[in-house]
Amino acid sequence: MSKEEPIISLEKVMLTYEDGAPVLRDISLSLYRKSFHFLTGASGAGKTTLMRLLYMGIKHFSGNIKIFGRDISNISPEDQCKLRRRMGVVFQDFNLLNHLTVLENVALPLKIMGEEKKRREHQAKEILEWVGLGNCVNVQPHILSGGQKQRIAIARAVIAQPDILLADEPTGNVDEKIAHKLMRLFYGMHKTGTCVIVATHYRQFVDKFHYNELHISNGHIIDRNYENGIQNNEFF
User: Fold this and answer.
1) What is the DSSP letter of 122?
2) Helices (H), strands (E): how many in the chain?
3) How confident is the model over 18-77, as pLDDT tens digits?
4) 197 forms bridges with which residues in the sheet?
5) Is the pTM of this model over 0.85?
6) Under a CB-based contact definition with an 8 Å cutoff, are residues 95 and 51 in contact?
7) Could you tell me if 167 and 186 are in contact, meaning their C-beta atoms sit under 8 angstroms apart?
């Protein structure tokens, strides 16, 4: 049996700021389908930068990055879009479209994929109910709170069941009850095949889950590997 190919692969990746200060140093990493990783580190350590690299939002780096087996250093804009359609992303600025309703924002990935309107709206309503925003489907996101916007961004990121989920501080603007519910959602996606990467400073989640912790310190990644997954099932 052939060895599984990494869904994300980094080899000797380095990135510096414009002033020459290093952000990431000699990062080598292989991540696979159906895996769950916490990305940790002090504020400014490079967590968001690494997320943006994986989403192909930063072009100037050295080393080699492959996403779905494709080298992204010289990828065409068309192929970059194709790869991004297989990814769900939650960034801290949410990137919601204020001229669309909440329902239209969440359903957008399915619309891009060509899903017919009735089906994509049904799926969007279901997931909005699940994250507690079923009463907001017809409003525009600019009138909502930061926590509500965050849940909309998460719903949009997961609706198409992506192969890779990148979530940057996805529980930073919600209360603990909602945070636990969102983590259950990410856990379920991981169990069905998604490679999940959650950047967080919330040690409670990192300590209750025994999944890989990718800790960034001085530009390097320390891979804290755990063998057995969740140890505290009461978390769910």
Assistant:
1) H
2) 7, 10
3) 777 789 999 999 999 999 999 999 988 999 999 999 999 998 899 999 999 999 998 999
4) 37, 166
5) yes
6) no
7) yes
